[in-house]
Design brief:
3-stranded antiparallel sheet, Adhesion/Biosynth-related, FAS1_domain, cell adhesion molecule binding
């Protein structure tokens, strides 16, 4: 699937006497803002803006290149427990890992993302793409709220859930999501939860 500024190429290589015509399905608008400028001007990304500044990723997101940012909205940040959010925001390494987990190494418009694809993030982890009806899913969840916001250095998709990689979780959080959740309960009952957090 070929896209031009996120417009899908419908028919290619119509040769004319003075050139060639490719038919696309959208009007291409002028793009002037970098990914960082989109973060700075979009009200629904206020929490993300603060997180990017704290993790020193500003220069990357305004640099030349082609990236895809899965931008968690304010609502996405509000969904996780305040204690977990404060811990991640207060830990520069965990914060950077989490944000890098939302950045893909290449520009991927929604039209070009094929279900069943595994996409590599800047952190080196992967995200699985599927579909639910006509909606794209990430790791099994239809969480893309707004897609194909074009930037001079890539594309932004707004997501309404935070994607937290294992490297940004405590042992307690990892255990709760795994086959050892009962062991976690025993640690808590024994008053040893602090060792896992």
């Amino acid at each position: 699937i070929v896209t031009v500024n996120c417009a899908r190429l419908l028919k290619a290589d119509h040769h004319a006497t003075n050139g060639v015509v490719h038919v696309i399905d959208k009007v291409i608008a002028t793009t002037t803002n970098s990914i960082q400028q989109i973060i700075e001007t979009e009200e629904s990304l206020e929490t993300l803006r603060a997180a990017v500044a704290a993790s020193d990723l500003t220069s990357l997101l305004e640099s030349e290149g082609q990236y895809t940012l899965l931008a968690p909205t304010n609502k996405a940040f509000a969904k996780i427990p305040q204690e977990t959010l404060n811990r991640i925001l207060g830990d520069p390494e965990a914060l950077r890992d989490m944000l890098n987990h939302h950045i893909l190494k290449s520009a991927m418009c929604a039209e070009a993302i094929i279900a069943g694809l595994t996409m590599e993030t800047l952190e080196g982890t992967t995200l699985d793409v599927g579909c639910s009806g006509e909606e794209l899913t990430l790791n099994g969840k239809p969480i893309i709220a707004n897609k194909d916001v074009l930037a001079t250095n890539g594309v932004v998709h707004f997501v309404n859930e935070l994607l937290i990689p294992d490297s940004a979780k405590t042992l307690f959080e990892l255990a709760q999501e795994s086959e050892v959740s009962k062991s976690t309960d025993l640690f808590r009952q024994a008053g040893l939860s602090s060792h896992l957090t």
